[in-house]
Amino acid sequence: MEKNKTKHNKQQASLKxxxxxxxxxxxxxxxxxxxxxxxxxxxxxxxxxxVLSVILSAISTxxxxxxxxxxRIDDIVGKL
Length: 80
Description:
The chain has 80 residues and is mainly α. The chain has one domain (2-79). The protein contains three helices and no strands. The chain has helices spanning 2-39, 46-67, 72-79. α1 runs antiparallel to α2 and α1 (2-39) packs across α3. The longest helix has 38 residues, at 2-39.
């Protein structure tokens, strides 16, 4: 029974890590695109930039988790 609980806890921690990594990448991309939108005097549609940032953060999260390397963002996720 205890082996199942520890295995289940590891899966939850993995899911938490994936969600937090995705949220941090989303925050980075949304911030970058917000500054870009501010400096181009709102020529580009903000909804388009938000959708683009979500797509890019999903791709970045996938690449980050498949690389199996430890980056600085992993330290930030570990502290959350």
